[in-house]
Write a structure and sequence with these properties.
Low-confidence stretches: none
Bound molecules: iron/sulfur cluster
Mean pLDDT: 94
Structural class: mainly alpha
Distance between the termini: 28 Å
CATH class of the largest domain: Mainly Alpha
Order of helices and strands: HHHHHHHHHHHH
Strand content: under 5%
Number of domains: 2
């Protein structure tokens, strides 16, 4: 895809979506990191429902360790994979207390060394909290990017590398949100709403589907 089309996609999505923000609720960098860890394979809405009460009393790694794994599970049991997520959150909180004076490390490698923090979580954290332009790739970003033709990749990490290379500098900070929201509300997994899509003219998937129909008729 050429530069002009890539730019046009982001301009169009930004016009429709406005100033995109994370849909996760949080109080500080630590509670944001916990929310992102919880959001793996779960909706932001389900995470916000669970953290609404949790974050009333837990705002720091020390609060979390004092709460303990069993009680944490009670707060997050409506979220998928809550057993392993609770274990990871308690362990990462202990590491933050012992190794980082209860602060969150800023280096990507140090972030991804924390339990439950992979490339996507670390990228989301760096983008939102540290203002480092990273394009974290979740299921929506992966699907949309490969459908439209922004990327042609097999894994999320490959998609991130391509997107961070081809995305114009001015869109690097917001691209992740724009693509997520487009995937969540328009370019849906099972039934993309192509008839309402504002970037249809740039979409490789739509062009291919149209060609298939023309060919078979
Ligand atoms: S035209 Fe359809 S498949 Fe392409 S980006 Fe829009 S909604 Fe997704």
């Amino acid at each position: 895809m050429n530069k002009s089309s890539i730019n046009s996609i982001y301009i169009t999505l930004a016009k429709k979506i406005g100033e995109p923000k994370t849909e996760l609720n949080y109080h500080n960098p630590y509670t944001f990191l916990v929310s992102v860890v919880l959001s793996a394979q779960a909706t932001d809405k389900s995470v916000n429902n669970a953290t609404r009460d949790l974050f009333k009393s837990v705002k720091t790694p020390k609060n979390m360790v004092a709460l303990g794994e069993r009680k944490l599970k009670g707060y997050i049991k409506t979220i998928g994979l809550y057993n392993s997520k609770a274990k990871n959150i308690i362990n990462l909180s202990k590491i933050l207390i012992n190794d980082y004076k209860s602060k969150i490390p800023t280096e990507f490698k140090n972030l991804t060394n924390l339990p439950g923090v992979g490339n996507k979580t670390a990228s989301v954290y760096q983008n939102e909290i540290l203002n480092i332009p990273r394009i974290a790739v979740d299921t929506h970003v992966f699907r949309v990017s490969n459908r439209i033709g922004l990327a042609k990749t097999k894994t999320a990490d490959q998609t991130q590398a391509v997107l961070e290379q081809i995305t114009p500098k001015k869109w690097l900070k917001t691209a992740h949100h724009l693509l997520i929201l487009h995937g969540r509300y328009t370019c849906k997994s099972q039934k993309p709403m192509c008839d309402q899509c504002m970037i249809i003219e740039h979409c490789l998937h739509f062009k291919n589907e149209k060609n298939k129909k023309n060919f078979s008729s």
